[in-house]
Amino acid sequence: MNNLTIEHRYVLDEILVSDDKKSAYLLGFLTRKLTHIEYKNLEKTPFLNKIYDINLSHEKIGAIYPVMINEIRKYDAIFKELEEEASISLLKSDKNWNISDEETSFYFTLGYTLGSASNYKREVNDKEIT
Questions:
Q1: Strand pairing partners for 121?
Q2: Confidence at 9, pLDDT banded by 50, 70, 90
Q3: Which pLDDT does position 54 carry in this prediction?
Q4: Three-state SS for 28?
Q5: Which of 93, 95, 50 has its CA nearest to residue 70?
Q6: Which of 3-7, 10-14, 93-97 has the highest mean pLDDT?
Q7: CA–CA dist 19, 42 (Å, integer)
Q8: Among candidates 27, 20, 47, 36, which has minimal Cα distance to 110?
Q9: 82 and 28 in contact (C-beta within 8 Å)?
């Protein structure tokens, strides 16, 4: 994510060193961006209903991702660097998912809560609604 600056980039590079943790975290981060767009347009967040419950698994993460991207595109938005890094992490982790469902939910929730951080800055202009 060369064009994406997260003040605490070390979280992805040094703490979440495995791709399974990065995948869950980045999908949570993207979910927060999507729910922000939804609320801005609809004053509600229907995508959260698709997450089912807080106990996410590798299979649920994989099922959520294409639905999430489709929903983001419905609002004519794109989060290029986040989507690319999430895709790469998902591909790398596909055969090496070593975290439990509880850990998956935990890292997803961390990404979700940090997805609204004010230190998320863009250096390129994608069609992102902020």
A1: 5
A2: low
A3: 66
A4: helix
A5: 50
A6: 93-97
A7: 33
A8: 27
A9: no
Residues found in the chain: 130
Distance CA 1, CA 54 (A): 28
pLDDT at 71 over 70: yes
| pLDDT at residue 50 in the model | 80
58-66 CB contacts, 8 Å cutoff, 24+ apart: 58/20, 58/93, 58/97, 58/104, 60/104, 61/23, 61/24, 61/27, 61/90, 61/104, 61/108, 62/90, 62/94, 64/27, 64/31, 65/27, 65/90
Report pLDDT for 14.
Answer: 78
Q: Under a CB-based contact definition with an 8 Å cutoff, are residues 126 and 75 in contact?
A: no
List of residues 6+ apart from 32 with CB closer than 8 A: 111, 112, 113, 114, 115, 116
**What's the pTM?**
0.82
pLDDT at 97 over 60: yes
What's the rounded Cα separation, in Å, for the pair 59 and 50?
14
Show Cβ contacts of residue 19 under 8 Å, excluding neighbours closer than 6 positions.
88, 89, 90, 92, 93, 96
